[in-house]
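FORM 7B: Structural annotation worksheet

SECTION A. Query
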Amino acid sequence: MSPRTSKCQTRPTIREIKINKKVITTTLLNPKKVTRTELGKLYPKRWLIEVDFRFIKTVPQMDIFRCKTPDMVCKEIWVNLLEYNLIRKVMAQAAHRHNLPPRTLSFKGTLQQLNAFKERFLHTTKKRLSTMYGHFLKAIVSHRVGNRSGRSEPRAVKRRRKPYPLLTKPREEARNELRRGGTSA
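SECTION B. Predicted structure
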């Protein structure tokens, strides 16, 4: 490795396959382990990954970090991923109990039910907790998503940033500057 090249700059080895007039690029290199047919079946499911990433970032509001140090940001990421996985586990339990595919249940609907049942869970006796959980899972199943097969979305940002400049100095200093009649940018 030359002095200017780091491990982060190495390029992965890829395999390109043409399926149904589309070129699929993958790092799954061994055609005996992962065939063209298998890759062709996986391709339409790629949108689910995009949806999952969106939920991971936006629902627990992980699109903006509140922590300041790298250690705390790392902990914040892990807590958010834990929250996401626990919600997905509850969805999987609800789907299993009611014989449904987990992907047919609404993530946002599950969150709403979790918030609605939160107080009831806190004030329910241990004896009734199992029954209450059954009602909770039934309520989750009532929030379903429609059939989204073959979904394809444009790769474009719909929301635009606000037209305000970034705050590049301490907030107190910017406030004082505003009070003196200057700009806060």
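SECTION C. Observations
The chain has a mean pLDDT of 82. The helical segments are 36-42, 46-58, 70-97, 107-122, 126-141, 171-179.

SECTION D. Sign-off
Analyst initials: ____
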